[in-house]
């Protein structure tokens, strides 16, 4: 299945970047959950382009129209469908791309997979635009989780090597997550954020694009959710996070650094805290052992590649004529995807956690 994810909760994403609308159908949500639509709008606004030269200038309102599944602002438990209209498309920018593949984008592989019938305008169904309905779904799940004390938050860890401060993996709190949530540019250290913004603006002026890393944490996840082998929390989170276009890597806890440690450095020793809870003194395991939550914060980092569509001419092929060519890309592209992908990562993690929480004994 392509854009259908089904794991207790299911989401089906539909639409193309320059089609009439994009949207999502979410099924198997718990019934009777209040959904604050203003809070959903705030979540979607964090993903929306800004007017400061660091994002695409495409201006979409991104107002979700709820077609089903909410009654008196509460989930009915039957399919919740939200549609978001596409209103600011410039399809002429894509007129040269039906046979010329943009390096780094999905034009070539999409044409192979769909025998040339894929809609290339704005990236079609491969567009980052599809993360708007993903964020809608993740925001709905986030509200259900937060009512139970479970908070997820993310920030830009680095862009093009410029680093933000980090979450304290062992002691990160809900307050730490909320402190960054509604910042216009989602970093902990504002000065470092300014350097990143300047770097992004310079990249755009130099017909370049930048990538980076997003750090995400979830707190108050009860110990004991998830399953081994193929239905672990790492599996589910990764599957959803890789649904975000431009994601190229993920690591949990100390991640790839664990490959450089010895056992006594990497192991997180257990203890019982003053409230009688089992905790670990460090959190290299990122809150997940054997696919199952340990009760420690769940922490992960996600690598985002530089935006494929850059303004300078690039070598490519005309795959209908099988000729070498040069492609000039038009359009209004993000010089860096990372800031806009921060809420997308949160959305993916919210979906994964709620889907596993439904298995939690006495989930109410
Ligand atoms: C929020 C968001 C915005 C994006 N904006 C652009 C863009 O403006 N131009 C572009 O070429 N790619 C953009 N992308 C990335 C492409 O959609 C993505 O690289 C492409 O579909 C190929 O998928 P892959 O990189 O996962 O292999 C964006 C991705 C996200 C998540
Ligand atoms: C519209 C959004 O991002 C788009 C994602 C995108 C891509 O190739 O992924 C390419 C651009 O599309 P267009 O050329 O039509 O402006 C971005 O603007 C959005 O995220 O809402």
Automatic annotation (TrEMBL):
Identification of the protein by name: Chorismate synthase
Pathway recorded for this protein: Metabolic intermediate biosynthesis; chorismate biosynthesis; chorismate from D-erythrose 4-phosphate and phosphoenolpyruvate: step 7/7
Reaction catalyzed: 5-O-(1-carboxyvinyl)-3-phosphoshikimate = chorismate + phosphate
Biological function: This reaction introduces a second double bond into the aromatic ring system.
Keyword NADP: yes
Residues binding FMN: 125-127, 290, 305-309, 332
Family, as annotated: Belongs to the chorismate synthase family.
Sequence positions that bind NADP(+): 47
InterPro entries with a match to the protein in the record: Chorismate_synth, Chorismate_synth_AroC_sf
Broad class of enzyme this protein falls into: lyase
Keywords assigned by UniProt, alphabetized: Amino-acid biosynthesis, Aromatic amino acid biosynthesis, FAD, Flavoprotein, FMN, Lyase, NADP
A molecular function GO annotation: chorismate synthase activity
Cofactor dependency: FMNH2
Free-text comment on the cofactor: Reduced FMN (FMNH(2)).
Subunit structure: Homotetramer.
A GO BP entry: aromatic amino acid family biosynthetic process
One Pfam family matching this protein: Chorismate_synt
EC number, UniProt record: 4.2.3.5
